[in-house]
Design brief:
The complex is a heterotrimer of chains A (303), B (317) and C (520).
Chain A (H helix, E strand, L loop, with lengths): L1 H19 L4 E6 L5 H16 L3 E6 L4 H14 L3 E4 L7 H9 L4 E4 L9 E4 L2 H15 L4 E7 L4 H15 L4 E8 L5 H15 L8 E4 L2 H13 L8 E3 L5 H8 L4 E6 L2 H16 L7 E4 L3 E4 H4 L1
Helix pairs in contact in A: 2-10, 3-4, 5-6, 7-8
Chain B lengths: L1 H20 L7 H26 L7 H17 L4 H25 L4 H20 L4 E2 L5 H8 L1 E7 L2 E6 H19 L1 H11 L1 H6 L4 H27 L1 E2 L7 H13 L9 H20 L4 H25 L1
Antiparallel strand pairs in B: 1-4, 2-3
Helix pairs in contact in B: 1-12, 2-7, 2-8, 2-10, 2-11, 2-12, 3-4, 3-5, 3-10, 4-5, 4-10, 6-10, 7-8, 8-10, 11-12, 11-13
Chain C lengths: L13 E12 L2 E12 L3 E6 L5 H9 L6 E6 L2 E2 L5 H6 L2 E4 L11 H5 L15 H14 L16 H13 L10 E5 L7 H16 L3 E5 L3 H7 L2 E6 L2 E7 L5 H9 L20 E9 L6 E6 L3 E6 L5 H8 L7 E6 L2 E3 L3 H6 L2 E4 L3 H5 L6 H6 L3 H4 E2 L2 E2 L1 H15 L15 H14 L4 E5 L7 H16 L3 E5 L3 H7 L2 E6 L2 E7 L5 H8 L3 H6 L1
Helix pairs in contact in C: 8-18, 14-15, 15-16
Classes of the chains: A alpha/beta (303), B mainly alpha (317), C alpha/beta (520).
């Protein structure tokens, strides 16, 4: 065993000595690599940084925040030139402090907080929610009763709900009938059950005009509820957010599901990579959150 | 020599390999203090688990108990209670959880694996209930509480840099001494080993085996609680699942330690070696930039390999 | 010496003839010159004391063990089984006292265990045929009340036993028919009604011309059921009797080999009446004990003997605090004792359990740790072990009982059986107990260590400890006892100064049947 290990280690070490010679070493850390969107972004950053000539090391701690803390310390001691963190820095303040003490800049990849970071690159949840809420108001021509599907405990989703609510409240003829808390896990089933209940309580055609969901899964649940009650033809409009594949299919099919918003993951990854590259080239990087615009997706975009 | 200390020699071997491959960063005072700090939480949980495993039982619930205790402390502080009260509440919950395990195993005679698998899920659910599924962080955690997990005793300076003995390392050392005294120097420790060696004989020799088991599970629960508090302090935040991963590593560490004992029984100093092996592997492999998934495979293989070598030589003797 | 050997006339064409069997286990000569003949259509009983060689003989017959010398024929053909399959092929079937069946299997599966199952055309098991076939087998044994689909653990102990009998009967469709059935203590776990059903089945088997070898301790069964009896003593056949021409006294005498009292034994009876009572029970009732009254006095060795299951072991357990009492209570020096081993040790009752490895020792622990386990309070201060005290205490006791070990820190598993037993004895003596309970104190111990242990036990008594020994070894009982208590069927059937007793008297009492018990 130790012989095998040492051989393995030597092989890797040799391959490294070639790469290190050229540019900086960057560690990308996340506890959430199993999540599809995190994976897309991390892969994007890795590819972009490698293309820029840097040596990239991706570390996943499989949901373990304590281990994330330890691994950040390890890479700082190992002497990396920069760290990209795809997790809220406030979960690992001590490790961020260690990095800062050692002069290693930490960049957020959709981190959701700027505490202790050089910069955070993410999508703007306020802006995205405004896009879908405005779309729904426009589709209803500013009039009708609307159901909201929300989940306030998760901060980014809470932001979406707050902004959508503000837009509906600011539209005189839009009435928010109910703001339904969607339980997680199982958002799709839970949303379907809740929406079925609301529709059953409002049996007249047109009594519910629109459904605003804070993300795509409850939106898909709402769509199933409408279909199972056979009320597809009332013109109830649904909007979601995140543009996951099943949502895109539903929108392309031209049913009740009308729109969602696609975050620009590639853009986020490229932006982080550019910031890191700038920092490693000795340029001053402004300390701020960088929002990468997201785009609304409707049936027209999917043809 | 090699028979008894094979696992220790393995640890030394791993250290030598990393020192050769990463001469500038691995074998430094700073990195070693860093490693002791990183393993401190696992160490506390593993030391306490050793007490239960001495009796031949398991406690699978230590991971979620650590999460729950950390969460109880964080939620208490968020609710405005003082740090001392929050810590006391968390430890009370941990001791009570351990007692529940003990009652299930010793008095209702449920197999430890099944009983603690059940409470594992219960404690995990309770942690989610206490927190409503969300993470408590930021201003909800008092400055002083988070500062403890980050701070330490200044030892002096090396190359102009302050060398600090982390507080968490100190806590782990204190728990190590306490558990060592409990297992090796007290009558209760003797009874624990007797129950693990032959529960029937121990009972017929007048040992109140159920009480002894109950106590062992309370100790294990308390250890998990202390580990959870350390984690919350270190991270200055509490996430309802942050301690869950500790259980498997704690059990692995105890088993690695068992390979060092001729009688095949857990000893807390053996557990210390097991914890260090896991900690050094994680630290060194990260420094070598080995892919995280490969790291997992290597760590698992090393644990299994060590235990296999241990069991082969015991059969041979 | 056996008076009626000549009277026995074996019918022609014996099913089984064991001409000579000789077998050693290490130093123990378990069987020497044992012989046995079972005729067709005969129920033949095999009796003897514990250790007479009955089980060894049966193990050899079953092919579970290869004998040193084993010359036998079945239906006139030479029979030398090398494994259980050989025995089955030769037409032997065994019904054991222990039910070694899987409790989750159905009756039909149990009966057909190891036999080919009937198949459907698809190759799956044909459960209907299997169940019908089982029902046929069961009804042949008049066991129609057992449903083939029932799961074994739902059956009563008796029905389960009868099912294993059915299993012995279920022949392979094209295999040889069974010619000889061996029953080893089959009624040990049965109620009277279940036993009757078993006897019916046995008599029906006999009517088919099969030979039946029946091993039992129960005299009334032997006289009710058997045609002839073979008596084993010390591994040799000492007599073959026609059941109708003999009586219990003759059988007991053949088993023990003694006619009169014990020659050469010095009576040790002492002034019992003056010794204070240390342990006492009144109307003690447990699952195995029935209304037992007993006082155990200081300074005497009281020995409890009886057949397995007679309650001798259960009585010791009750004094040791390891029993569930349905009635009565244990008193130590007049003070009621809670039923827990801890309470017993606290009250000064020290216990050496019968199973040294299973119940006595903690093998991975050191000699010292094993010895001082119940006495940790004496070597600790505020819970802290005082190592030097522990060492000194352990060394003193190791020396006193003569444990031969490298040191008191040596792990117990490295010691010999005799030394291990001395460690357990030292543990009991180290507390300077009021009462000393010993279960099978010298089982598996070599002769030298045996004598040393006897001396230690006698010394303890001389120093005023009340000693209560339960043993299955009659020799040992007479060696140690000042007073002898004989148990049968959960009751004390004889209680007297050892000097007033003979082996015959003890055995006759021990073999006394439940029926007589009720009548008496």
């Amino acid at each position: 065993m130790p012989r095998l290990l040492s051989r393995f280690v030597v092989a890797i070490a040799l391959s490294l000595t070639f790469a290190v010679a050229q540019a900086g070493t960057v560690a990308v850390l996340t506890p959430y690599l199993a999540s599809a969107t995190t994976k897309i972004m991390v892969d994007g950053v890795e590819e972009a940084l490698t293309n820029l000539g840097h040596d990239v090391n991706v570390i996943d701690t499989a949901g373990d925040v304590g281990a994330l803390d330890s691994r950040i310390q390890d890479v700082v001691l190992q002497g990396v030139d920069a760290i990209v963190l795809s997790a809220n820095p406030e979960l690992v303040p001590a490790a961020i402090q260690t990095a800062s003490d050692a002069g290693v800049p930490v960049f957020g990849l959709d981190a959701g907080s700027l505490v202790g970071l050089q910069a955070d690159v993410t999508s703007n949840n306020y802006a995205m929610a405004a896009q879908t809420a405005t779309y729904l108001v426009d589709a209803l021509e500013g009039e009708g009763r609307v159901v909201m599907l929300v989940h306030p405990p998760y901060a980014p989703v809470q932001k979406r709900g707050a902004i959508a609510r503000a837009i509906f409240d600011n539209t005189p003829d839009i009435e928010v009938v109910d703001e339904i808390f969607v339980e997680v896990p199982g958002p799709l089933e839970n949303a379907r059950n809740a929406v079925e209940a609301v529709l059953t309580a409002n049996p007249e055609a047109g009594s519910i005009a629109g459904i605003w969901a804070a993300w795509d899964e409850p939106a898909l649940g709402a769509l199933q509820a409408i279909e199972s009650l056979g009320r597809q033809d009332e013109g109830i409009a649904i909007v979601g957010l995140d543009a996951i594949d099943p949502a895109r299919e539903a929108i392309a099919g031209g049913g009740n599901f009308k729109a969602t918003v696609a975050q620009d993951f590639a853009g986020i990854a490229q932006t982080v990579a550019n910031l890191v590259d700038d920092a490693l080239s000795g340029e001053d990087v402004e300390r701020r959150t960088v929002y990468v615009p997201a785009s609304l997706v409707t049936q027209g975009d999917l043809r | 020599m090699i028979r008894r200390y094979g696992t220790l020699i393995g640890l030394v071997g791993i250290v030598v390999v990393f020192s050769v491959l990463r001469p500038d960063t691995f074998m430094t005072v700073g990195n070693w203090l860093n490693i002791t700090q990183q393993v401190s939480i696992l160490a506390v949980v593993a030391f306490a688990s050793t007490v239960v495993m001495v009796t031949g039982a398991f406690d699978l619930s230590v991971g979620t108990m650590a999460s729950l205790a950390g969460m109880v402390a964080a939620a208490s502080m968020q609710a405005g209670l003082g740090i001392g009260v929050a810590i006391a509440l968390a430890l009370a919950v941990a001791a009570a959880g351990g007692a529940v395990n003990g009652l299930l195993v010793a008095y209702l005679r449920i197999v430890p694996f099944v009983a603690t698998l059940g409470t594992l899920t219960m404690f995990g659910g309770l942690a989610l209930m206490v927190s409503d599924g969300s993470t408590i962080f930021g201003r909800a955690i008092p400055q002083a509480f988070g500062a403890f997990g980050r701070g330490g005793l200044p030892l002096g300076t090396v190359d102009g840099r302050a060398v600090i003995l982390p507080n968490l390392t100190i806590v782990a050392l204190i728990v190590l001494v306490l558990v060592w005294v409990l297992l090796e120097q007290t009558g209760y420790g003797r009874r624990l080993y007797a129950v693990g060696g032959n529960a029937v004989a121990a009972r017929l020799a007048g040992v109140r085996t159920r009480l002894v088991m109950l106590g062992a599970f309370v100790v294990s629960g308390l250890g998990a609680g202390i580990g959870g508090l350390m984690l919350t302090s270190r991270l200055a935040s509490a996430n309802p699942t942050q301690g869950d991963g500790l259980m498997l590593n704690a059990i692995a560490a105890v088993f690695l330690g068992v390979t060092m004992s001729d009688e095949g029984v857990p000893r807390v100093l053996g557990t210390l070696v097991g914890v260090l092996i896991l900690g050094v592997l994680a630290n060194g492999l990260t420094q070598l930039q080995i892919d995280t998934y490969v790291q997992q495979v290597l760590t698992g293989a090393i644990v299994v390999g060590a235990v296999a070598v241990g069991s082969v030589r015991r059969r041979a003797s | 010496m056996p008076p009626s050997t000549a009277a026995a006339t074996p019918p022609p064409e014996p099913r089984l003839r064991v001409v000579r069997a000789d077998h050693r286990y290490g130093a123990t000569h378990a069987l020497k010159d044992a012989h046995l003949t079972v005729a067709a259509g005969e129920v033949h009983a095999l009796v003897g004391e514990n250790g007479a060689g009955k089980s060894t003989l049966i193990r050899l017959l079953a092919g579970a063990e290869t004998a040193d010398v084993f010359s036998a024929t079945i239906d006139g053909r030479p029979y030398t089984p090398r494994n259980p399959a050989d025995a089955r092929r030769a037409g032997l079937r065994f019904v054991h006292q222990e039910l070694n069946v899987a409790p989750s299997l159905s009756v039909a599966e149990t009966v057909h265990l190891g036999l080919p199952y009937p198949r459907t055309p698809l190759g799956t098991i044909d459960w209907r045929t299997l169940n019908t076939r089982t029902a046929d087998t069961l009804s042949k044994l008049q066991l129609g009340h057992i449903n083939p689909a029932t799961v074994m653990h739902r059956l009563s102990a008796g029905d389960a036993m009868l099912v294993t009998l059915a299993r012995a009967l279920a022949a392979e469709p094209d295999g040889p028919a069974a010619g000889l059935y061996v029953f080893d203590e089959p009624t040990a776990a049965l109620s009277a009604r279940e036993a009757d059903r078993l006897f019916d089945a046995i008599l029906r088997l006999r009517a088919t011309g099969a030979g039946i070898l029946y091993v039992s301790h129960r005299m009334n069964e032997i006289f009710d059921l058997s045609d002839r009896v073979t008596v084993l003593r010390n591994g040799a056949t000492v007599g073959v009797f026609d059941t109708s021409n003999t009586d219990r006294a003759a059988l007991v005498q053949a088993m023990t080999g003694r006619e009169g009292g014990l020659a050469g034994r010095t009576p040790k009876g002492r002034g019992d009446a003056e010794q204070p009572v240390v342990l006492s029970v009144r109307s003690l009732q447990t699952r195995q004990l029935n209304e037992v009254d007993l006082d155990v006095q200081a300074g005497l060795v009281t020995v409890v003997v009886g057949l397995p299951g007679s309650g001798r072991r259960a009585l010791l357990r009750a004094f040791a605090g390891d029993a569930t009492l349905h009635g009565g209570q244990v008193h130590v020096l007049g003070i009621p004792m809670k039923q827990s081993p801890h309470a017993a040790w606290q009250a000064g009752v020290a216990f050496v359990p019968d199973e040294r490895r299973g119940e006595g020792l903690w093998l991975s622990g050191s000699v010292a740790a094993n010895m001082l386990l119940p006495h940790l309070g004496r070597v600790t201060r505020a819970g802290w072990v005082r190592r030097r005290h522990e060492q000194r205490e352990a060394e003193a006791w190791a020396a006193r009982v003569g444990v031969r070990a490298r040191g008191v820190r040596q792990p117990a598993w490295e010691l010999s059986g005799g030394n291990q037993q001395k460690v357990v004895l030292a543990r009991a003596l180290a507390g300077q107990p009021q009462a000393l309970l010993l279960g099978e104190p010298t089982r598996g111990v070599d002769v030298g260590a045996k004598e040393e242990i006897y001396d230690l036990v006698r010394n303890a008594a001389q120093q005023g400890t009340a000693v209560l020994v339960a043993t299955s070894d009659l020799e040992e009982a007479f060696t140690l006892a000042d007073r002898m208590v004989v148990m049968a069927h959960g009751r004390i059937v004889l209680d007297a100064a050892a000097s007033d007793l003979t082996r015959e008297a003890v055995l006759t009492a021990a073999f006394r049947d439940a029926a007589e018990e009720v009548a008496a």
